[in-house]
Amino acid sequence: MYRSDLYHPGSEIADELKSHYQRLHHVPFPGFVAAEFFPELKAEVDRLLEQSRRRDFLMECMDNSPRRMNVVNGHTIERLSTLIPQIYNDQRIIDFLSHVVGEKVLPLTDDIDRYVINQLRKSSDTFGAHYDDYPLSFVLIMESPGIEGGGYAEMVPNGALSDLDVNPIKLPLKAADAYLLKTDTTAHRVAPLKVDVLRTAINLAYTTENFVPRAITESANKLYAEEEA
């Protein structure tokens, strides 16, 4: 389902990707999803989005940053999909991520946000500034408007949430691309859409063998709760 010829621990680019991640706490994987598999995965995501819930509120515990988006939580995905859990638990992907991170990457057990689908649909939709409770987010891009449409990831390694308004790293990606982000210490967000267009992503959250969590926030449960926010 993915470009295993490029993205495995012994590939020619593996050490380069690891170095990029160690320096900047994120790394893009262009064309990660194999072209022949992408239509199947996209169809699965579209089917699951029929169960999505709309969010439009300010997250108090993250400096009142906005959440304007549609979401499908992990419990819904667990009930209705075998494909996304299969990707999440693929040991080849986990081994590759472990190489890039430099320590053993581990899947979560039953967290509501261990795998989710997030979709921005309308102008000004955004996944506002935040940190995650877990150290790693591996994101598969299903739809992207490109840099001109907004909806690109922005980040500041070891930064404050307010630093995102100064000079963040921008990471515009295309459909079938992916990226890995150190999310517990990197201030990050998805920039607002500039027009009515779709930005759709599968977010896969992982921990590491030696991870010591900070205080757990209410943000994930509030964003991905079964009831309307």
UniProtKB/TrEMBL annotation:
InterPro entries: BesD/HalB-like. It comes from the Bacteria. This is 2OG-Fe(II) oxygenase superfamily protein. It comes from Lysobacter gummosus.
